[in-house]
Write a structure and sequence with these properties.
Length: 199
Amino acid sequence: MTADVSVQFTYTVTLREISDGLKIQMRHSPVGRWAYRVLCVVGIFLGLVIAINVAAKGLDSPALGVLRFVVTVIVIMIAFRWLMALGLLGYARHLGEHRVTVDRSGIGTVSERHTNHTGWEFYGRCVEGRRVFVLLTPDVWGAGVMVLPKRGLSTPQDMERMRELLAAAPIDQHSVRAARKKGSGQPEEGPSGAEAVRG
């Protein structure tokens, strides 16, 4: 790959892409991975407890109250992510159409109200989803997130150029390599379309 290889994304962000980005952030930041695993274990445990209680005591089991509580918590968590995505969507739409150039030096972003260039050293991880590439900062929260929707690429060849640039960048490619080894060319679900730095 020559030093002047670059890839350009042109897009206006969507709510689905931002929501995907937040989901990937939770699953791939150190704290997010830990929290996700704990929630899965707790959910499985509570599910077993509720099932055993209902089987033993019928529909009058007090475990049904716990089930209602768990369902309520899950609904609130889903609603919170969508509300956060709506907030970020408003900010991204305010910036207008994004034109992002990715090259060996980093990521350059130009919008109607914002221009920025970020070097690769700012990011520590990359995750490729079915619809997006997501770059995360190396802190335990993965607080800095850049979502690049694949629909913003102009040609299919740009997808491979983007993967080459990511492979050459000094960031963790484990997630991208693992997804591509599955052979589907459809990596895990991911973020897309806007840069959001929260700290």
